[in-house]
Give the backbone structure.
Amino acid sequence: MKIVLKNLTKVFEGRRKKDPDVTAVNNFNFEIPDGKLVALLGPSGCGKSTTLNLISGLEEPTSGQIFFDDEDVTNVPPENRGIGLVFQNYALYPHLTVLQNIIFPLQNLKGEERLSMDEMKRKAKDVAKLVQIEDLMDRRPKELSGGQQQRVAIARALIKNPRVLLLDEPLSNLDARLRLRTREEIRRIQRETGITTVFVTHDQEEAMSIADELILMENGVINQIGAPQSVYDEPANLFVAQFLGNPKINVLRGFVQNEKLIIRDEVFMEMKNTPDKDLFVAIRPEGFVIDENGTLTCNVRNIETTGRDTSIVATHDASLEETIRVIISSDEARGIEKGPIKFSYKENKMFLFELSGERILL
Ligand code: ADP
Ligand code: MG
């Protein structure tokens, strides 16, 4: 089932008169395709949870509409939307067993929908198998690891065969190793069930690795939507370029003068048909080439080898950050020493931006 957001806006009024209103979601228009896993990605406070809560019905929009396929669900209460919800803090009932937690949503069903205990147990077994916790059914939450607890929460979210699965930072309470494993599990479960899934995270690497599509947000505004690799390769603006990638993209101040782009005192590249102006030059860490004819002279401060790759920490007066981070293969890095170094760049790893952050397409 696809989810469609149409001119969706949520404004939170300031608590007191003098507090300003907050537009947590500002005129969102997008479609989440049937059967896909889409990540809502952005820094804390950018409106991810609010967007998810609008889709689930836990929050009411200030204006705009939400459709599940062609059905307008804007005024449908959460319990009738056919959604499964998973939060960061598992929210399991501590005094209930895993089985009892999983079947909990079924126990409130009324009338014709009501199931016998045997039917509930059979359903619980199916979802427990899917998330691989069949052997833990009699335990209580405190007897489980964080990763296992989150699987129980996912099983509980799946037991009513939801049309949509909504996950709000589901991995944030797990340690690094479990986070990786559980992330792969969620991907597998989503593929196996084919449930349209919205996954909220502030972690760009997590979003990149798990999602079919990214929706990158900042301050209640959508910056870019697309497949992870294409957003990485073609960032629409400086914010997106800086948000995706680790180490972060390197940004330098430059200016155009007489159709040449100059960084500090070097002609970095020709820029035909461009008026004189200031701009930003951004180069991905993997976009540098050691080249004695290169047009960017940096100063190597530190060289860290990690086997396959070498990470060069350098400085440059025009850099926005204190250091420039370069990653090249260890073979290419052989013989590098501290001190001045000349780089050229890979064209598909270098981007230009206006001072406003808007991309300058060449
Ligand atoms: P995220 O999940 O991306 O961290 P949220 O959606 O929780 O962001 O919040 C977006 C913005 O809306 C923030 O500025 C937050 O303070 C504000 N906000 C969220 N919920 C409420 C609320 N119930 N009342 C007032 N402001 C809220
Ligand atoms: Mg949140």
